[in-house]
Amino acid sequence: MFGAFRPTASVSVGLLWKTPWRLSRTRKANVRDRLKKVDAVIEAVRASGVECGALARALELPKEHEMDPKDKYTVFSPHDRGYRKGIHKVPKFTRITHRVNPKGF
């Protein structure tokens, strides 16, 4: 029990990756900062005079200050109750844009 092969806390608890049910204040602030930084990059590329399809699609997206809090911190999910789930439950949510959701959700 107290030897070299005693069970660690993570082994005895069960799940190794525990995801909180809701985002904390600091994680919400990080999401807002990330959205603002992306908006700044899009604006810098637009100001440089470059024209491409990706930039045209990016300019159609709502900016951080135009988004509802519901759209900032949750995404549409057809499998969840209420059709919404926390953005931190989405794999690679920091690299993928989720600014636009289906109408009515």
Strand order of the largest sheet: 1-2
- Main sheet: strands, sense, barrel: 2 strands, antiparallel
The helical percent reads 40-55%
Distance between the termini: 53 Å
Structure notes:
- With 105 residues, the chain is mostly helical.
- It is built from 4 helices and 2 strands; from the N terminus they run ααααββ.
- It has helices at 9-13, 25-48, 53-60, 69-73; strands at 74-76, 84-86.
- It has a two-stranded antiparallel ribbon.
- A hairpin with a 7-residue loop joins strand 1 and strand 2 (84-86).
- The longest helix is centred in the middle third of the chain and has 24 residues, at 25-48.
- The chain is elongated.
- The mean pLDDT is 88.
Please describe the topology of this protein.
Layout: H1 9-13, H2 25-48, H3 53-60, H4 69-73, E1 74-76, E2 84-86
Antiparallel strand pairs: 1-2
Organism: Auriscalpium vulgare
Keywords: Ribonucleoprotein, Ribosomal protein
Protein name: Mitochondrial ribosomal protein L31
